[in-house]
Amino acid sequence: SPDVATLNTLIPGLSTASPRASAPTLFKLFCFLPETYAFAPDTITYNSMLSALCRAGDVASARKMFDGMRASGQGGKADAFPNVISYTTMIRAYCAKRLAEALSLFKMMVADGVPPNRITYNTMVQGFCEAGWMELVKEVFGMDSFKPDTCTFNTLMAAHCREGRI
Fold first, then answer.
1. What predicted TM-score, i.e. pTM, was given to this entire model?
2. Is the pLDDT of residue 76 over 60?
3. What is the 3-state secondary structure (H, E, C) of the chain?
């Protein structure tokens, strides 16, 4: 019978297949299988749903799900507490249009004791560069745990070229 591994395979597969399953369809699957077969979705399941919702442009639903993960994790259900992937997925979604919210999520991540990784930092650098918020890029560079890599410098070079600062 289906279990959490089954769900963890179906959600990313259906959300990236052509044609893609809609966000409501994925959410129905996300709710139906665990209820019907009595298993709990884990962080991987939630991360897959967050990614699918953000990819579909439904950042508001993704945020509700993310906040639910945080609430359940703080209530003792460690199976669904957000990890670095959860936070980075949401930060990436907010970097598209709501940079202040992306920065707020980053601060929440650190306060929750979830250490950011290079992908988290590079996501923020790319989002801030694309928006022309170079002061925030400097702030990211000043963070103690940030170690720039090739991706970071490529993003910076592209941003400076776009702005004519060859």
1. 0.89
2. no
3. CCCHHHHHHHHHHHHHCCCCCCHHHHHHHHHHHHHHHCCCCCHHHHHHHHHHHHHCCCHHHHHHHHHHHHHHHHCCCHHHCCCHHHHHHHHHHHHCCCHHHHHHHHHHHHHCCCCCCHHHHHHHHHHHHHCCCHHHHHHHHCCCCCCCCHHHHHHHHHHHHHCCCC
